[in-house]
Specification:
Shape: globular
Strand content: 5-15%
CATH architecture of the largest domain: Orthogonal Bundle
CATH superfamily of the largest domain: Intergrase catalytic core
Number of helices: 15
Strand order of the largest sheet: 1-4
CATH class of the largest domain: Mainly Alpha
Radius of gyration: 22 Å
């Protein structure tokens, strides 16, 4: 009986409404539902559900996904099981040892970022040129670009509402000047600055695609070039300069400093240099 309740489309609709009531973001709701449907697909030939099957599903995930990705999927599913009043079916997340440093093939370096900016410094790519600078100089999430409006740059700050919280982000004066000039040239007099030809705010796929087009000319690995890596670069640069992880967590909009630590991890080469500077060898 419980098994069929999980599969019913009307219960998924109720769950979707529940997530909206909890004021989850649109992207979060879509991910939770996508992850639940993935489980439903796995269960389609089982005909039942119990804790053993859930453990089997957990082990199935780790064969196809990175540990961090598998854990986010399990978090979504555990949330759904809690909503359906089936807490006995929840499974534990995989344990992850915190990394001291990250691979150099994962993180965008400052020099690579500068090459992307130099490559995009043209009239036909002016929008993505400024979008990259906006994300990287403020540390915002890509979904927060919508808050960069004509009105906001006049005040030199934006109010970001995300996940039920509000935080203030100050816009550097130089960025305000660049955005004002861009808006004036394109006749944007009010509202969102980064818009499509149909006057709609640019979305994640627009930005991702435009960034990828720059990779070859900029001589940057395409695997490093995506919007969230700009946020990572901001966090690492800020932390290397200020060494204040608590303030950085506030700027990034993180509820937990543990989340912020992920953004401040250095590369293996940087870590090796730091270890060498200890001068503990003779």
């Amino acid at each position: 009986m419980k098994y069929h309740l999980l599969l019913r489309e009307d219960n998924l609709k109720k769950y979707e409404n529940h997530l909206r009531q909890e004021e989850k973001s649109k992207a979060t709701i879509e991910k939770y539902l996508r992850d639940v449907r993935h489980l439903i697909g796995f269960l389609s030939d089982k005909g039942t559900i119990n804790k053993d099957i859930m453990i089997t599903y957990k082990n199935h995930l780790i064969k196809s996904y990175a540990v961090s990705s598998a854990n986010t999927m399990l978090t979504s599913i555990n949330n759904y099981l809690g909503f359906m009043k089936m807490p006995d079916l929840k499974v534990k997340l995989f344990k992850i040892q915190r990394k001291v440093f990250c691979g150099e093939d994962q993180e965008l370096t400052k020099s690579e970022y500068m090459r992307l900016l130099k490559t995009s410094d043209k009239d036909e790519t002016r929008r993505i040129h400024l979008i990259m600078q906006t994300i990287c100089s403020t540390g915002i999430r890509i979904g927060e670009l919508q808050y960069f409006t004509i009105e906001a740059i006049k005040k030199r700050k934006i109010e970001v509402y995300n996940k039920g919280k509000c935080r203030i982000i100050f816009i550097p004066r130089k960025l305000c000047e660049k955005l004002s000039e861009y808006a004036a040239v394109r006749g944007i007099k009010e509202g969102c600055i980064f818009i499509t030809r149909n006057n709609r705010p640019v979305n994640r796929s627009n930005i991702w695609a435009e960034m990828k087009k720059l990779c070859m000319e900029a001589d940057v690995d395409v695997g490093k070039v995506y919007p969230h890596n700009l946020r990572h670069l901001f966090a690492r640069t800020y932390y290397q300069t200020e060494k204040d992880i608590i303030k950085l967590a506030d700027i990034m909009g993180h509820s937990s400093i543990d989340t912020t630590r992920v953004y401040t991890v250095s590369t293996g080469k940087e870590h090796e240099k730091q270890i060498s500077c200890l001068k503990l060898l003779i």
